[in-house]
């Protein structure tokens, strides 16, 4: 019986291509990171090279529990690490300023540093730091147009009307 679902299973693979498995550094060592994200990263075969948190003891504890080799003292140290290919931000708003003041500029500065660093990272093994190109304007216009049309259809009640007894939309691969 389970063989009947093999096509669905194959098309829903969550495997990550090796070229996309870049070293990860995490900002934030709270419960979700500790109990969910790091478990999922390990299961997916992703390498976490470091973690940072405003509570260094918590970061060290999570790092020790999950075999993370480095605990960063701050964002600058994390962003300066050449091994880091992906920065995962899992820290709550305001955590970068222990005095409780506004952190908007600090977070924007960190975001800008991370974006500059990502521009210098190779996009594929063997690349020389050429950043990935954004979608072409034509493709972006197609996506915007499709989104707008879908929203208009929903607003006019022309979308999927299964609950009202209407017909199902035609799909390429009905499951």
Question: Could you explain the architecture of this structure?
Answer:
This protein has helices spanning 6-11, 31-43, 56-66, 75-80, 104-120, 137-155, and strands spanning 24-27, 48-52, 71-72, 86-89. Residues 159-168 have low confidence and may be disordered. The chain folds into 2 domains: 10-120, 3-Layer(aba) Sandwich (Rossmann fold); 135-175, no CATH class. With 175 residues, it is an alpha/beta fold.
How would you briefly describe this protein structure?
The chain is 41% helix and 9% strand. By secondary structure, it is of the alpha/beta class. The chain is extended, with a radius of gyration of 22 Å.
